[in-house]
Design goal:
The chain is α/β, with parallel strands linked by helices. The chain contains 21 helices and 18 strands. Helix 1 (5-14) crosses helix 16 (382-388), helix 5 (90-105) packs parallel to helix 6 and helix 19 runs parallel beside helix 20. The protein is globular.
Length: 545
Amino acid sequence: MSMSKFASDIMRQKYSHKNKEGEVESWENIAYRVSKKVLQSVHAPASQIEATRKMIAERKFLPGGRYLAATGRLYHQVNNCFLFRAEDSREGWSDMMQKATLSLMTGGGIGCDYSDVREKGRLIRKTGGEATGPIALMQMVNESGRYIMQGGSRRSAIWAGLRWDHPDIQEFIRLKDWSPEVKAMKERDFNFPAAMDMTNISVLLNDEFFEAYNDDKHEQHTLSQSVYWSTVCHMLETGEPGLSIDTGKNSRETLRNACTEVTSADDSDVCNLGSVNMARIESLEEMALVVELGTAFLLAGTVYSDIPFAGVDKVRNKNRRLGLGLMGLHEWLLIHGKKYGADEELGKYLEIYARSGTLVRPYAKKWELSNPIKTRAIAPNGTIGIVAETTTGVEPIFCAAYKRRYLKGQVWNFQYVVDPTAKRLLDSGVPLELIEDAYDLANDVERRVSFQTWVQQYVDHSISSTINLPRWGSELNNESRVRDFGNMLIRYLPKLRGITVYPDGARAGQPLNPVSLQEALKQEGHVFEESGTTVCDITKGGVCG
């Protein structure tokens, strides 16, 4: 299947290398480069390299963006993110800042659990001073991210988590309540600095939280209720914080990557990603082959990848933590005439996906590597989803047509997009009104949460997914709806590893905005450049005056 101009443009901008003559790689060239370089690092046979090249070229398996961009470079750091635990000491703060800076500079996002840092105002015994608290350290990391283009090519991706019973939790929950003045400045200039604007934040919930929440005689019952409902209110209004859940056998895995799909208990662990494109898988047999080869590819990546600082290799080699994900789930359902939700036939494919840890063991033995501790994590795959031209992660189609805003160099551009999945369905005769999208499901949030919960049972890490909601203050998202939403959500949380929502318009400069199909078709193929308040069509090389 040929690649659309939009997907091809993004591919060339984000992932293609140039040769000495200045010629830009095609997708077939990228598939060859990535499969050969990564698998040769473990001396894989030519037949395996060719089979992997073919499935990447056919977009049935897509390695994470760092693989596509960095493989073959002199410095080839191909991990998408690094996971940290902040230590409560001067040395710990210094170490955290150094690791964060090095990770961002080499192309990796970062996630950090700050729960061990003592609260603001607590006495420092050695100096007699007062602690500044975990939020101060978060803000230092956030500001580093503001001035570091991740790997020299993209905005920094950062996540911060704080446990629900930390003394500073209420301040943390309110951290991104920007004033109307700041919101207005952000609307005019997306790069205007605001509190924690480079960072996604989450409240961490554990077994103790659920025990306290469900037992009105528990000594922390009032605290757990207060934290939960405060978080829910802020989620529905601003989209943050999210909730991250670490219970049972996962209770120690409080660390997360920037998008929260990879979890760990070990500081300096890595996020090593690739995704199976369900929309292009034609049989259970093919699913098994792609899962096996994709997982083996990621295992080889633990050998191939450079590291940003000493210490990563020790944790990586111990855990071999992999993040084989899925994309195209909603397209698969639409192709098969099914609604967004749990499905018996789809479950058969997910059962094969859940065997990835078993399928990769012969490769670990052959290459004399430790068995991966976990193998599955569903990333949001926003950019590689565009290249794959399918629905991303477990997300539904965002909208049949939308306006996408993106950073090219130092300049913000936008263009009109007809969703490729929607276009294929429309071309096949499916009426537009039968194509469910994120805005339809925003009116049926429980079905959206229920589907994520169902898929989570096949995933040993987590799922990064953002549930679109109507704008705060609208008929379906307002103060009168908070209690119903919170009561619904608490029923599902024990079976989830995380949940994030985004009310329409919650943040200035949001990357996707729905438009009518007619408007998108009229403007499709045109690229617009933002220059202050001026917008200019640069498709034919024009410039803004």
